[in-house]
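User: Can you model how aspartic acid sits in this protein?
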Amino acid sequence: MALLVQKFGGTSVGSVGRIKAVAQKILASKENGNDLVVVLSAMGNTTDELTKLAKELSNKPPQRELDMLLATGEQVSIALLSIALHELGIQSLSMTGTQVGIVTESSHGRARILEVRTERIKARIAEGQVVVVAGFQGTSLGTEGTAEITTLGRGGSDTSAVALATALEAEACEIYTDVPGVLTTDPRKVKDAKLMEKISCDEMLELASLGAAVLHPRAVEIARNYGIKLIVKSSWSDEPGTTLTSQGSRTLGRDGLELGKPVDGLELVEAQAVFALSHVPDQPGVAADLFETLSKGGVNVDLIIQSTHEGKSNDITFTVCEKDLTKAHRLCEKIIKKLGGQLSIQNNMTKLSIRGAGIMGRPGIAAKLFENLSRNGINLRVIATSEVKVSCIIEANYGNKALRTVSEAFELTDNQIQTNPIIEETEEPEVRGVAMDPDQAQLSVCKVPDKPGTAASLCSALADSGISIDSIVQSERLHHDGSRDISFTLKKEDRNSADKALAPLLSQWNGSQLREGAPITRISAVGAGMPTTPGTAARMFRALANANINIEMIATSEIRTSCIVSQNDGLTGLQVVHNCFKLGE
Ligand code: ASP
Ligand code: MG
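Assistant: Here's the modeled complex, given as structure tokens:
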């Protein structure tokens, strides 16, 4: 008999009629011979409505009281479903987060799950009962053992469901929702968005952090780390939906279910060359021309960054394997003849990367990496960030030292460290989905010192204020005094706190200043096959150029290519990128 955890979202239990329909679905699963644990959200917009009531009484309601209030939403839905199940003759029992043994940290409103004490729920399952669990909530043990109700953060019942599936070693975790599964992009913005049959958890994490709101990202992190089979499907049909795959093989340990070490891999790739083209024209088609030429000439480009610019020119930096250096050099010379600009090449470089789920969502991690490198006098030549990987290019003779300090800092074991891993060919598509994130702002810190530790102090200052940044790009161009610019994007809502967080640093760096870019939108393409498919970035840049869209910033990582474009170009950009990878029906 298979044990399944099934989660139903707010819309799926939004009325008595729908609760009856869910009960019928559970009856059918039960008759198929499955053991079931059902996790529910609150009915419809209950959580919003309760929040609104609190806000009518106070601008800043105490988090503890908010948790007391919001946790009631799920208590209503679970009791009602259990009543409906009894009516169908199914033995069932509803349980709150506390009753089911979901133990969390004590931080109200965003608690992470530490463990699930499964004795009680296992006993009920063994009796053949369907256990209906309140999602989104848990219990903190408190310092003196005083238990408190906590909530996991909005959308958190997905996370409750996957955590239960992990602790109970369930066969699969099924998330029933009001969409048919995970789509190639937002169907409200692109009409021919198509359902994906499967997607890896890493790809999903990238897309989720870019605004695809189907699943709570923490649920995907848990599924990735523990190798849980996660399926997203419609509550209203029997279609198979989307399966999320992962290779994770962690076992539950002492670290806490959600708190386990966030970084679980370190990689060194040697023999890299950094190409920097500066002062190329700032107009649509330049990046497309350059990377098309390289890809047609058989050069596989790894990281690409293009930073903000002063005046009417851009700097584009990219990395290739040293074996492609001569070829790439020749092709770049050709491009420069046509477009103008200057080329500098630096060989004998090494790429160091750390991996893990939700790295950029935890702002301290990138900061810790950069700090450890700078403390050892290691300069970061290029930085590439994404939700599941942060890479930097350093000089080759620092490679071993960097490997040692980083593996110590993140407590990695030998089998988590790889040098020059062979990239395996995959059947995976170069681009699985595209996303648009309009909630980003672009900031540049101009005229920062060009020495080890600059990026690290920037990131730490922001991390200390809880601000995650994305797409950090250091400009190629040196100012006359030898200083550089560093640009990054961050969530609009963090824009003002960033000013405050960076003020002390700016006053230390003589002549430096913070500049905000024009309103932007980020368009990203994500696909596990990207590293082994030449020309992906070129195709994306060409599609944008053909729509006459100028690219302001480029940042790539292993499985993601992001372009920052002007806000007005966002929607068209998303549509043409979706189209160019033939993702539609
Ligand atoms: N009811 C909570 C919310 O609306 C949790 C959830 O639905 O996942 O955020
Ligand atoms: Mg949800």
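A couple of observations from the model: The first strand starts at residue 3 and ends at 8. The pocket of aspartic acid (ligand 1) is lined by residues 9-10, 41-42, 47, 73, 135-136, 154-157 (CB under 6 Å).
User: Helpful, thanks.
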